[in-house]
Amino acid sequence: KHALNDACLHPNQAEIATVDQRGCLRLWDLAAAECVLETLVVDDGGLQVVAIAPDGREIAVAGGTVKAS
């Protein structure tokens, strides 16, 4: 429903993180083709970029304040 602003392939090559104009961060399981994590932004500014640490243990986003759902 909302345009994607960025996507990042997880180092495990099995997941992808996306951020959209609504302000959602989603982690997708590529094999199952389903969302396994969704986090919403507190404000309406949307998320612009996403990055995943090389060890896969952290995801960073920019463009808003993140609140776990």
Furnish the topology, listing elements before pairings:
Elements: E1 4-9, E2 15-20, E3 24-29, E4 34-41, E5 49-52, E6 59-62, E7 66-68
Antiparallel strand pairs: 1-2, 2-3, 3-4, 4-7, 5-6
Helix content: under 10%
Unreliable runs: none
- What is the rounded distance between the termini? 19 Å
Number of DSSP helical runs:
0
Average predicted confidence as pLDDT: 87
Q: What is the number of E strands?
A: 7
Helix-strand pattern, N to C? EEEEEEE
Radius of gyration: 11 Å
Structural class: mainly beta
Strand order of the largest sheet: 1-2-3-4-7
Our estimate of the beta-strand percent is over 45%
Overall 3D form: globular
Largest sheet: 5 strands, antiparallel
Tell me what the structure shows:
The protein has 69 residues and is mainly β. It has no helices and seven strands. The strands form two sheets. The protein has a five-stranded antiparallel sheet with strand order 1-2-3-4-7, with no helix packed on it. The mean pLDDT is 87.
Any descriptors?
69 residues, mainly beta, two-stranded antiparallel sheet
Q: What does this entry show, briefly?
A:
The chain has 69 residues and is mostly beta strands. The chain contains no helices and seven strands. Strand 3 (24-29) and strand 4 form a beta hairpin.
